[in-house]
Amino acid sequence: MITFPNAKINLGLNVVSRRPDGYSNLETVFYPIPVCDALELLDSDEKGLKFVQTGLEVDGDVEKNLVVRAFRAVEKATGRTFDAKVHLQKSIPFGAGIGGGSADASFMIRMMNEHYNLGWSDEKMAEIAITIGADCPIFIYNRPMYAEGKGEILSDIDVNLSGYYFVLVKPNVHVSTADAFRGITPAPAKINCRDIVSLPMKEWKGKLENDFEKTIFALHPSVAAIKEKLYELGAVYASMSGSGSSLFGFFEEKPNLDGLFGDAYVFCQKL
Q: Whole-structure pTM over 0.85, yes or no?
């Protein structure tokens, strides 16, 4: 069984308050994008889990990989052990603010639910996904959704961006999530992002904001420059996703991106 975990972007992201548990309360709109990894699950004659990861290199203990953690979480929830081979082909760039690792984890849960006929609802799978990461549940539903709380309180939202050319640029810049949050002064947005995205996209600029941009752009002017370049190229709307460092833009016509962003990861596709 093979699936293709896809990333997401944040259409607006506002940090509205601090929480006593150390997290922050957010308001954002998650939107799936066609930037994907590949994840394969096969039965195995060998005992336990054999996990193989190729493509972009993931450092660290294998047991801390989000796919493996999701596999273990399903085993714990069912009280069973599964003999399986799992292969992750990693293509979604790291540290991009687009949820690649979270997508892999949630797709692992979804695949195991189907492959092993567990019969879980989306809500049940989301309960397990949240134990892996705050933005994991969005990938269980994998459709545009408005999020509150840590990002786990989800509700459907009617946003359809099909027909636009979508451009994603991930520079070779590491953004510390801790630094991103450290520079934030939480406050409710003047206009909720849920309401802004209901407007025509041409009205989003100047209204739909990512609170992390101010801090990250000050620390990394090269990231700010990419957003400006996207607008120079004719983007209807451009923004940073999550806490960075990827930038995205929506275009009515396909832009010419040849040689503009150096060694950055660049993706362009009509939605």
A: yes
